[in-house]
Amino acid sequence: MLDDVLGSIGLHQSGSPLDFAKLREPFSHWLQHQAVTPEDFAFLVSLVGAFISEYLICESGAERVLVGPRIFLRLPVQSGVAREFDPYATASGVLSGKTSLDEFLTTVGC
User: Fold this and answer.
1) Which of 33, 49, 83, 109 has the fewest C-beta atoms lying within 10 Å of its C-beta?
2) How do the domains of the chain map onto residue ranges?
């Protein structure tokens, strides 16, 4: 999904490996310039949540875990210590304008 969407908006060459470190800033910038309608909100939450998940897995060693029926990320903070959070709830906050995707990913140490 990420490959197709990021390719269709001109941020990525579809079919080539995703470079999340290089995509972080342009994707965040693209998101900030979108007029998010209620009809598009759920799709964009899934897109941004997937990006957060894959970015943190690839760049920070996060793990995807199931907590009941929900998907969370377990992000190492220091040796033996990790924090868990819902990337889709975070995506909802990003799309609601509480923070930018780039700011969030910088805040969590990436």
Assistant:
1) 33
2) 2-107
